[in-house]
Specification:
single chain, alpha+beta, GMP Synthetase, Chain A, domain 3, 3-stranded mixed sheet, KH_sf_prok-type, GTP-binding protein Era, ribosome biogenesis, rRNA binding, RNA-binding
């Protein structure tokens, strides 16, 4: 498939244990520009669907439990150059 944009990251907005013994996870995929958002979503949502399926499989294997994953894509211009954003995403340590 097509590659993803260089400046893309995922912020986990919700990670809770559900009543079925698995996890409900909401992820926000951040990109820099509208064109990148279209690239991540893909034609009729095909790319983000594939991303979600593969990510869910990996998480279920890692957690050894069922995972319900919801993903959204948001344009956040300049996130990769914003020290506060990088810190909140875990890319920069507090010194």
């Amino acid at each position: 498939g097509a590659e993803l944009p260089y400046s893309v990251t995922v912020e986990i907005e919700r990670f809770v244990t559900n009543e079925r013994g698995g996890y409900d996870i909401n992820g926000l995929i951040l990109v820099e520009r509208e064109g990148q958002k279209k690239m991540v979503i893909g034609n009729k949502g095909a790319k983000i669907k594939t991303i979600g399926i593969e990510a869910r499989k990996d998480m279920q294997e890692m957690f050894e439990a069922p995972v319900h994953l919801e993903l959204w894509v948001k344009v956040k211009s300049g996130w990769a150059d914003d020290e506060r954003a990088l810190r909140s995403l875990g890319y920069v340590d507090d010194l």
